[in-house]
Design brief:
mainly alpha; Arc Repressor Mutant, subunit A; Tetracycline Repressor, domain 2; rod-shaped
Length: 299
């Protein structure tokens, strides 16, 4: 019996405890309502946080767009201001590739005549031509290609107009050659710069085979035109028949270019004036005896 008493006490305690935690149906509804309210409050808070995050993102993105817009507007304004100071080119010129090419060639020719090929400054050429570096490399692969084109299309053309064309079908080749020699400029700056063909040949023939072949071909064309004119003059009996036309033409070119070199070295126009007199005198000696008499009488 003593051992059974504690079991009874324990059962009583358990019933008492169970009785204490029991809640009424009304209290249970209140708890459920409270929990529901807490849950709704949590959902509302989460919704507010999500909405605030979205607003922050939108504000941040709007700030980026605004910054980009300001940057673009700044670039546009800077470009407009820079364009004011940029040399104006006609729309037709910018769309005319052949004209652009000619301007590049003429600018390169002047720069090469002034400084030589190796010292020619591409930036100076672009500035003189008024074109971009992209336009330069659109027409020419490199500086050498530009130099070759200057020889083929500018120097050769200038020599052709000055020496070759006047000798074609010339009735008096001696007189034509003498007038060409006498027309040479005696301005100090022209004497100082010398002959473009001679300058380039001396500078580049030993360094670049492309330049050597091109300048040699121009000299060959010059020589052939002069020799042919002398032969035609022999047929008309206005040139002495006892001279060799090929050798005489070569001598005349060498003599004239020699005076050009001396004039450039001395930078004295009087050297070129002396060359004009001497070469012209030699040309007159190529006339037949009676032709010389008539020429002296006309003089």
């Amino acid at each position: 019996m003593e051992k059974g008493k504690p079991r009874a006490v324990s059962e009583e305690n358990t019933r008492a405890s169970t009785t204490q935690v029991r809640v009424s149906p009304r209290e249970s509804d209140e708890v459920a309502t409270y929990r529901k309210q807490v849950k709704q409050a949590h959902c509302s808070i989460r919704a507010d946080i999500s909405r605030d995050r979205r607003r922050c993102y939108e504000i941040r993105e709007a700030g980026k767009i605004f910054t980009s817009t300001i940057a673009v507007a700044t670039c546009i304004l800077v470009g407009m201001l820079a364009d004011r100071n940029r040399p104006r080119r006609s729309a037709a010129a910018s769309r005319d590739p052949e004209r652009t090419r000619r301007r590049l060639l003429q600018a390169a020719f002047r720069e090469m005549h002034r400084s030589g090929f190796r010292n020619a400054d591409l930036d100076a050429i672009l500035a003189r031509a008024g074109v971009t570096k992209g336009a330069l490399y659109y027409h020419f692969d490199n500086k050498e290609a530009l130099g070759y084109a200057v020889v083929d299309e500018v120097i050769a053309s200038n020599l052709h107009q000055k020496w070759v064309q006047p000798l074609r079908n010339a009735r008096d080749p001696i007189g034509v050659l003498a007038r060409i020699v006498q027309s040479e400029s005696l301005k100090r700056e022209d004497v100082q710069r010398g002959c473009p063909l001679l300058n380039l040949s001396q500078e580049m023939s030993g360094l670049d085979e492309g330049f050597r072949k091109r300048t040699a071909r121009v000299y060959q064309d010059w020589h052939e035109a002069m020799a042919e004119a002398l032969r035609e003059g022999q047929k008309r009996r206005v040139v002495r028949s006892d001279i060799d036309a090929n050798e005489t033409a070569m001598f005349l070119i060498a003599a004239w270019e020699g005076y050009v070199v001396l004039g450039k070295s001395s930078q004295d126009p009087r050297t070129m004036l002396s060359g004009q007199r001497r070469v012209s005198g030699h040309l007159e000696s190529l006339r037949p005896a009676r032709g010389r008499g008539r020429a002296a009488g006309r003089g």
